[in-house]
Amino acid sequence: MFKVLTSASVKMVQRYLPDAFLFAVILTFIVFLGGIFINGKTPMEMVNFWGSGFWGLLGFTMQMVLILITGHTLASTDICKKGLRSLAGLAKTPGQAIVLVTLISCMANWINWGFGLVISALLARELANQVAKVDYRLLVASAYGGFVVWHGGLAGSVPLTIATEKHSMQDVIGIIPTSETMFSVMNLTIVIAIMIALPIVNRLMMPAEKDRIVFRGDGIAAEETAATTEGMDSDSPAAKLENSRVLSILVSALGIVYLISYFAEKGFLLNLDIVIMAFLFLGILLHGTPRKFLNAMNEAVKTTSGIVVQFPFYAGIIGMITASGLAATMSQWFISISTPTTFPLFTFWSAGLLNIFIPSGGGQWAVQAPIMLPVATELGVSHAKVAMAIAWGDAWTNLIQPFWALPVLALAGLGARDIMGYCLMMLLVTGAIISLGFLVF
Q1: Is the pLDDT of residue 427 over 50?
Q2: Is 338 in contact with 386 (CB distance < 8 Å)?
Q3: In angstroms, rounded to a whole number, what is the distance separating the alpha carbons of residues 117 and 121?
Q4: How many C-beta atoms surround the C-beta of residue 141 within 10 A?
Q5: Segments making up each domain of the chain, as ranges
Q6: What mean pLDDT do residues 392-405 have?
Q7: Portion of the chain with pLDDT greater than 90, in percent
């Protein structure tokens, strides 16, 4: 029965889900019309909201481009390829490959989502290259599926924000330590339950051998060739600089010394900038020469076009749904049917719905927190629990939101339609686990 449902989900998505760019365009018009017919805004007002927000994610877009490029470049070094091959070697059968990549994805994303997205995608590709007859679509979907735990992990932006002095909601909820959010019994139970259930679910979704689509390793071969090509004129001063190991060591030393200083001062506190810096300077060091590093970078840049084109459209959507008040209206719908018992659950569901249109943890927190937290105060509901409901809702529907899948899809060479049928099944299972967590605790 589970395989029948999975097959139906995959076929439905293949038939009806448009390309990730068109998905963003369709969401744009849904929000545009919603602002007009639900919140009474004029078409020109909605156009202005869209245009004002269109470039609002430029800094974040650059971060995502860099994490994809530097992660891809680091993975193409000899030592990282050997490490990935050794890790992939733990799986001998297609089922073991699915379970392994799911577990690694969950653990890596719990540590840091930027690190997890890149590592799990690269591991999936290596597993596909080593394990015969494993379905590549399900393998990549499993690599992405572990992303669902990120906001309950060490890099969760909501629990880290409300544990920091002078956050935007401090007057309402004060400072809430991480012991009450990411390290609470409720949150850890949800994370552990997902880490146990998701590998099993993904293994059960494995299609019959005749229906599997297997990986062809042409992309890896091309990458290896590009990453090891030397300059032709080896006697010129420019070529000597490009092939100088000393230069690579010196420049990478600057970054590595800073990273050591950073971790010595702040502990193992990862953010996007630190992950990018670590990928970048380790890549420079491990490639050995500037020329090898630049060749690998040039190859990696080819995977970033989807991010560059689509992220501004999501920024425009965020601008419209926030400025028009549509996001607040959606949240109020759920508040109107809530009780003290169901309020955290409905907050989670509303955050999941809103996340489809605002796929940004910080952006969603800015919209929902000022609405949900004062209501939590009135109902006598734990602020920490409601904050984590917003965080989990933000993470949950990322499973069917191509926005966050783009880096994984770029590294894997697949489209959103290839994995979203499987991700839809993961959405249902993890949604049930998270919902139960908010009702039980």
Answers
A1: yes
A2: no
A3: 6
A4: 31
A5: 1-211+301-440
A6: 91
A7: 57
